[in-house]
Amino acid sequence: MQKKEAIVTSGKTEKSPHDQEIKFFAKVLLPLVDQYFTNHCLYFLSSPTKPLGSSGYASNKEKEMVASLFCKLAALVRHRISLFGSNAATMVSCLHILAQTLDTRTVMKSGSEMVKAGLHAFFENAAEDLEKTSENLKLGKFTHSRTQIKGFSAALEKTLLQLTQDT
């Protein structure tokens, strides 16, 4: 009770540990992951038969871990994007570099069933989200100008094409 009174009289509110964890995740961990994979992208894309850099190549298990991290972060964004608020761009940047680092071919050939299922779920969710977005565009549920919608529609079509070619 005294702690509550002290907070009220001082005019300060304490952040919950959960809020602090989210802030730490968004402000510290995501930029760290982003920078790490930016610096080591070639390592994760290299193979014994196709070296892309001088630092060797990742094992199949390491490539599986990248895929798993990508799928888990993508699922978190899909279900709880509101947690990131102004740090959403950091999350998008992190997902972008993870997607570039992802050796999907190797993971689908030799990865565990759990990681393969995670990738499959990612593409299913992406297709569902794109379909809903397309429907909303057709129904005019977005409040953007016509030129913005045309640009977005072109990007959406390109994304759909890319998703269908990669799977």
Question: What's the main sheet like?
Answer: none
Q: What is the radius of gyration? A: 20 Å
Mean pLDDT: 79
By helix and strand content, what is the structural category? mainly alpha
Summarize the structure.
By secondary structure, the protein is mostly helical. It has helices at residues 2-10, 17-39, 41-45, 60-80, 88-101, 104-110, 113-138, 146-166.
Explain what the structure shows.
The relative contact order is 0.09. Helix 4 crosses helix 6 and helix 4 (60-80) packs parallel to helix 7 (113-138). The radius of gyration is 20 Å and the shape is globular. It is an all-alpha fold and 167 residues long. The protein contains 8 helices and no strands. InterPro entries: Ryanodine_IP3_receptor. Keywords: Receptor. One of its GO terms (cellular component) is smooth endoplasmic reticulum. GO terms for molecular function: ryanodine-sensitive calcium-release channel activity. This is Ryanodine receptor 3.
Q: Any descriptors?
A:
mainly alpha, 167 residues, 8 helices, globular, 0% strand, disordered N terminus, single chain
Task: Break the fold down into its secondary structure elements and pairings.
Layout: H1 2-10, H2 17-39, H3 41-45, H4 60-80, H5 88-101, H6 104-110, H7 113-138, H8 146-166
